[in-house]
Write a structure and sequence with these properties.
Elements (H helix, E strand, L loop, with lengths): L3 E2 L6 E2 L1 H10 L3 E7 L2 E7 L14 E6 L7 E4 L2 H20 L1
Antiparallel strand pairs: 1-2, 3-4, 4-5, 5-6
Length: 97
């Protein structure tokens, strides 16, 4: 089972505590809309590294457009914010072409 984390402290918590937090947490890091395309970066609350390296706790995804389904994962909020900006630039570049 993946380890569960809370955004405030990014420490491991038990499943019950995590579930209670997850129900009401605002996990958004950034949301950007460019035309019909949505770029979303969120705190996942659980590790997506699957035992390969440092915990991957954040995710950026692109919904719609030529990059639909794009995703990337990050270990920190700072990395996630930078990754969101890269995804926005990727969509904006395609929109200019």
């Amino acid at each position: 089972m993946s380890e569960k984390f809370r955004r405030e402290s990014q420490h491991i918590v038990d499943l019950r505590e995590w579930g209670q937090w997850f129900e009401t947490a605002n996990r958004d890091v950034a949301q950007t809309h460019i035309g019909e395309v949505r770029i979303s970066t969120v705190f996942l609350g659980f590790d997506h590294s699957f035992g390969q390296g440092s915990p991957r706790l954040y995710e950026t995804m692109i919904f719609g457009g030529p990059h639909d389904g794009y995703q990337d994962h990050y270990s920190s909020r700072i990395e996630a914010a930078a990754g969101h900006a890269r995804a926005v630039a990727l969509v904006e570049e395609k929109e200019r072409v």
